[in-house]
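Bumping with the actual sequence this time:
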Amino acid sequence: MHLVFLQFKGFVSPITHCSRPGAVAHFIALPAAFSAMPLGTLFGGLFFVFLAFAALTSAVSLLEVPVSYGMERFYWSTIKAVCIVIIILFVLGIPSLLSLGNVSGLTFGGKSFFDWVDFITSHIMLPIGAISLLIMMNNRDGSP
């Protein structure tokens, strides 16, 4: 993403003023950059099609683990496991969605539900996963 910003920096000044980091910048700064460049509509359209394809393939790979678990642990069929996992994730995603919109004023400890999920995954789960991976990779005999 940073390479894209460096490429477009000369085209549009709002990119330097984009205060929202991460995925939000895709939908604020990049459309402005694409509109300022020659054939920007074509390249912008292609970019967002490819972005949607990348998101879809990532979602499929992330669903693979819980679906496999449901199939092995509960002897579900593939279709049943996929449907159950998607329903569970949809229900769990509703509070995150609402915390960005209708109930954005509802906070716990100064953070919305979405901010808490973001904090827990990026500041707690990610480091624990990295440390666990390092411990497993450092184990020379292959035993758990």
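The tokens above came from a reply further down the thread. Residues 1-7 have pLDDT under 50 and may be disordered.
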